[in-house]
Design a protein that fits this description.
The complex is a heterotrimer.
Chain A (H helix, E strand, L loop, with lengths): L1 H25 L17 H10 L2 H18 L5 H20 L6 H24 L8 H26 L7
Chain B lengths: L1 H23 L2 E7 L2 E7 L5 H15 L7 H6 L6 E3 L2 H14 L13 H6 L17 H8 L7 E4 L2 E4 L9 H18 L5 E5 L2 E5 L3 E5 L11 E5 L4 E6 L4 E4 L2 E4 L13 E8 L2 H14 L1 H10 L3 E6 L3 E5 L3 E3 L5 E4 L2
Parallel strand pairs in B: 15-17
Antiparallel strand pairs in B: 1-2, 2-6, 3-5, 4-5, 6-7, 7-10, 8-9, 9-16, 10-13, 11-12, 13-14, 14-15
Helix pairs in contact in B: 2-7, 7-8, 8-9
Chain C lengths: L1 H13 L7 H20 L6 E6 L2 E7 L4 E5 L2 E6 L2 E6 L6 H4 L9 E4 L4 E5 L7 E3 L1
Antiparallel strand pairs in C: 1-2, 1-7, 3-4, 4-5, 6-7
């Protein structure tokens, strides 16, 4: 019982954190006008953290809530499809990598960042009904991976230093 | 449970990769027809022969030089003799005549202007086009007299010529019409996305396409500006830079205006975007002849969009978003 | 479920900032990036000219080497990075009077000879209206 309450509380805080990070990120101007909502992906720190501490179910819940709330509260409901496509690709690949126990968090997050951008560009191509947007993919993927490494490192520090080893007990 | 989830995720990811790659696969058919070069790109495999056949069939109906074509037979018929033509020809002639009678812009598009076109040297086979000299004023006045559609009567699929000097030419609308036919064929054969480019007349099917505007004069780029051709729309351009000759420093081009001389308005290139290739083709000629002021009115009256390039290197965007590529041009939005 | 979680959690608690398998991930990412780059930008902007006769590709030449060659009764010249048709037996001579081309996607066409001279490279536009 106590564990469940703790889990709900922790997930709640993490979701709120992801939302705040997302809000701040959105204040930055978009990189490419034709692929709106392509940002640094810093909220990946939280998603990856949830995947490490808990599991895919919890990750999906946090991701879903963050996507919907961020889009609605910032007044951009159309953002949902972009975030959803990018987020799903990202979280699924990251999850598959996390339980393989072979890579560092920095690498996993880099992959997650790249996948997120691929998803966003794919949706942009469907929305504008033209393949012209793919010209932005190399640039976005590069910076997405680099940002991913950064978020991975932050996540690593949080896991190693901030959270006590007996957190789940 | 976890295993199911894993397998599901892998399947979702692989499905995405597959979808992405199949989105970009495209098939191409290219060739020569109607005096120009065409490229058809489609998401579904094409039958190049079928496409070439459609275009050849259009050429064989409307060509002014193929001796068995409907137009040639009309232009060489005995005055007063009824000539039987195909349904396509009847249809396109009626459409062309309607354009010629446009309110406020009569004869801006003139399917009967061929005698003048020939007088100025722009009739096939265009022998040594660049060395030509302009005709004399008295010849222009004489020929202008019988360049009117009133010299022809259309009844169903029969056409009669009333003056032995009058001649028809559907060159200003045939390419658009041919493109429409290719579009119909592609849609019928199940192509979801395609882009047809028939000598600079384009139709976008099932997707939006980014299209560039050809430079009317020297440029460091292969296009001076770009716009998005929405799905289901066609675009055509009329300009003074493809068939012309320069004599004594003056440019004479092939789009003859209402006064018998090459149209001399403020625009040197007119691009029209609307939902039919033949309409875009005819309207681009009309707007080019009439100039920007009247041209903008005509475009709006027909619920179309346009991009006009003036002699002063100004690009006028009529109800469509345009992105400039060559900074030698400035963009204005039509009010 | 909890034990699985603890295994994952403990693993990452103990993991280093960079692991050995990261190299494989890095390689895959770089390859993916290279593939995307190649697909979107191949070949390099306006670096070669392709000659088609009757729909068949018959020659490809780099733009940075001056040369002159014949294609049937047409004479084509590459000079100073630009391609032009200097001679042709076609009646209208439109190909000869066309401006020399040098930007990706530009073409010179001779309809009577069924020849297409095209500069390679991708343009941001899918077609040009003229």
């Amino acid at each position: 019982m106590k564990k469940n309450t703790k889990k709900i509380a922790v997930l709640g805080i993490l979701t709120a954190l992801a939302l705040i990070i997302g809000f701040v990120e959105n204040m930055l101007p978009p990189v490419f006008a034709m692929v709106p909502y392509a940002r640094l992906g810093l909220s990946n720190i939280i998603i990856l953290l949830v995947l490490v501490i808990y599991d895919i179910q919890e990750g999906l819940i946090v991701l879903a809530i963050k996507i919907v709330l961020l889009a609605v509260l910032s007044g951009n409901p159309s953002m949902i499809i972009y975030s959803f496509a990018g987020g799903m690709l990202s979280i699924l690949t990251m999850w598959l990598l996390t339980f393989m126990h072979k890579n560092s968090l920095a690498a996993i997050s880099a992959v997650g960042g790249a996948m997120h951008n691929i998803g966003q560009v794919a949706v942009a191509a469907l929305v504008t009904k033209t393949a012209a947007v793919f010209i932005f993919l190399p640039h976005l993927m590069l910076f997405g991976s680099l940002a991913g490494i950064l978020t991975g490192v932050v996540c690593h520090i949080v896991v190693k230093r901030v959270i006590k080893p007996d957190f789940l007990k | 449970m976890k295993r199911v989830f894993i397998i599901l995720s892998v399947i979702i990811l692989l499905a995405n990769v597959f979808a992405l790659t199949s989105c970009s696969r495209s098939y191409t058919a290219e060739g020569f027809a109607l005096g120009t070069f065409y490229t058809v790109k489609s998401s579904k495999r094409l039958d190049p022969k079928a496409i070439q056949d459609i275009l050849d069939s259009v050429e064989n109906k409307f060509s002014v030089s193929v001796t068995t074509s409907d137009i040639f037979r009309i232009n060489n018929s005995v005055t007063g003799e009824w000539i039987e033509v195909s349904e396509d020809t009847g249809f396109l002639l009626n459409a062309a005549f309607d354009f010629a009678l446009t309110d406020n812009a009569v004869n801006a598009f003139n399917p009967a202007v061929f005698p003048l076109v020939a007088l100025w040297g722009f009739a096939p086979p265009y022998l040594e086009l660049m060395e030509k000299t302009p005709p004399r004023e008295e010849d222009i006045t004489a020929v202008l007299a019988y360049c009117d559609i009133s010299n022809f009567i259309i009844e169903g699929n029969s056409v009669k010529r009333l003056n032995e000097n009058a001649a028809l030419d559907l060159g200003g609308i045939a390419k658009g019409y041919a493109a429409d036919k290719i579009a119909d064929y592609l849609i019928e054969s199940g192509a979801k996305r395609a882009l047809i480019n028939l000598g600079g007349t384009l139709i976008s099917i099932g997707k939006n396409s980014v299209i560039g505007i050809a430079p009317p004069r020297d440029s460091n780029y292969s296009y001076i500006a770009s716009f998005t051709l929405s799905e289901g729309f066609a675009c055509a351009t009329s300009g003074d830079y493809e068939r012309y000759y320069i004599n004594d420093g003056v440019r004479y081009h092939h789009i003859i205006g209402k006064d018998g001389y090459p149209a001399d308005s403020d625009i040197i290139s007119a691009t029209i975007i609307c939902d039919s290739g033949k309409n875009a083709d005819a309207m681009s000629t009309m707007v080019f002849v009439e100039g920007s002021a009247k041209g903008i009115e005509l475009i709006r009256a027909n619920a179309a969009k346009g991009i006009l390039v003036t002699r002063d290197n100004i690009i006028i965007a009529v109800d469509i978003e345009v992105k400039i590529k060559d900074s030698g041009y400035t963009l204005t939005i039509a009010e | 479920m909890n034990t699985d979680n603890m295994k994952t959690f403990d693993y990452y608690k103990k993991s280093k900032l960079l692991e050995r398998w990261d190299i494989i991930v890095a390689v895959i990412l770089v390859l993916a990036l290279a593939a995307v780059l190649l697909i979107t930008f191949l070949p390099a902007e306006g670096s070669e000219v392709e000659i088609y006769k009757n729909g068949q590709l018959i020659a490809v030449y780099p733009l940075n080497e001056n040369r002159a060659f014949n294609v049937g009764a047409m004479r084509i010249e590459i000079f100073d990075g630009k391609v032009s048709v200097v001679e042709s037996d076609c009646p209208d001579q439109l190909c000869v009077h066309a401006h020399s081309i040098f930007t990706a996607g530009s073409v010179i066409i001779c309809v009577p000879n069924k020849v297409v001279v095209k500069i390679t490279g991708k343009t941001e536009v899918e077609g040009i209206t003229q």
